[in-house]
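Hypothesis: this fold can be encoded by more than one sequence.
Test: take the structure tokens below, design a sequence, compare later.
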């Protein structure tokens, strides 16, 4: 290393220059996610206020809550920018639970 450079002198001699870490992922504006969450919440409120029949309302409400939980986990807990398996490990079991709940509700 030279006194005025934090780069080791042998790295410079071999043509290697350090680069700042970059991110290759696209970011989504938090405002867009918040808008989606607000829209889903308004839909949930509309479903309950307008007294939608229970067999239709329950799967819709479960689906909307799944979408909201996924958005929060993926974007605000930053799972979207981690390895694919972390988001997959959250979304797939949640989706399976939603599907099982809906099937059991109608399986009398």
């Amino acid at each position: 290393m030279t006194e005025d450079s934090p780069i080791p002198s042998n790295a410079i001699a071999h043509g290697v220059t350090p680069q700042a870490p970059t991110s290759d992922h696209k970011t989504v504006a938090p405002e867009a996610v918040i808008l989606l969450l607000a829209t889903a919440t308004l839909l949930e409120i509309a479903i309950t206020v307008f007294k939608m029949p229970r067999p239709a309302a329950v799967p819709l409400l479960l689906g909307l809550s799944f979408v909201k939980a996924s958005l929060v986990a993926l974007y605000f807990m930053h799972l979207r920018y981690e390895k694919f398996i972390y988001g997959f490990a959250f979304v797939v079991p949640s989706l399976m639970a939603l599907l099982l709940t809906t099937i059991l509700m109608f399986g009398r």
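The longest helix spans residues 54-76. Helices lie at 9-13, 30-49, 54-76, 84-106.
Hypothesis status: open.
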